[in-house]
């Protein structure tokens, strides 16, 4: 009598192979995601930002490129604000036509001066220290928060 041929693929071997595939897929998915989330690409290398362009009085907020820092001059002096939403940290966009800041993530709205008007944002946009140099350039220290009334 002839015996049935036994398969090399036992149920246990198939399950092991399945688990190995699941673990490999998880590693291949999670590793790039963790690398992306921990990227320091969009973080400032230094908290100091220099703004060299002329800043006319009452010209509205001007972007100090690549640092989420905006500057403005009014009758009392120069101020700087960081356009990072106080809810979860998205970059807020300035809408000069409406004179307000709007967060694209969860729709928080801030008024012209960065005070929250609606949405989940708990606080005003951060004002940071500005030093007005004799040559007219601005040295902005994004690591030093100041009050809304502070001017250089
Ligand atoms: S991160 Fe801006 S409203 Fe949530």
From TrEMBL:
<dbReference type="InterPro" id="IPR005805">
    <property type="entry name" value="Rieske_Fe-S_prot_C"/>
</dbReference>
<dbReference type="Pfam" id="PF00355">
    <property type="entry name" value="Rieske"/>
</dbReference>
<dbReference type="GO" id="GO:0016020">
    <property type="term" value="C:membrane"/>
</dbReference>
<protein>
    <submittedName>
        <fullName>Rieske Fe-S protein</fullName>
    </submittedName>
</protein>
<dbReference type="InterPro" id="IPR017941">
    <property type="entry name" value="Rieske_2Fe-2S"/>
</dbReference>
<keyword id="KW-0411">Iron-sulfur</keyword>
<dbReference type="GO" id="GO:0046872">
    <property type="term" value="F:metal ion binding"/>
</dbReference>
<dbReference type="InterPro" id="IPR014349">
    <property type="entry name" value="Rieske_Fe-S_prot"/>
</dbReference>
<feature type="domain" description="Rieske">
    <location>
        <begin position="47"/>
        <end position="139"/>
    </location>
</feature>
<dbReference type="GO" id="GO:0016705">
    <property type="term" value="F:oxidoreductase activity, acting on paired donors, with incorporation or reduction of molecular oxygen"/>
</dbReference>
<dbReference type="GO" id="GO:0004497">
    <property type="term" value="F:monooxygenase activity"/>
</dbReference>
<keyword id="KW-0479">Metal-binding</keyword>
<keyword id="KW-1015">Disulfide bond</keyword>
<dbReference type="InterPro" id="IPR036922">
    <property type="entry name" value="Rieske_2Fe-2S_sf"/>
</dbReference>
<keyword id="KW-0001">2Fe-2S</keyword>
<dbReference type="GO" id="GO:0051537">
    <property type="term" value="F:2 iron, 2 sulfur cluster binding"/>
</dbReference>
<keyword id="KW-0408">Iron</keyword>
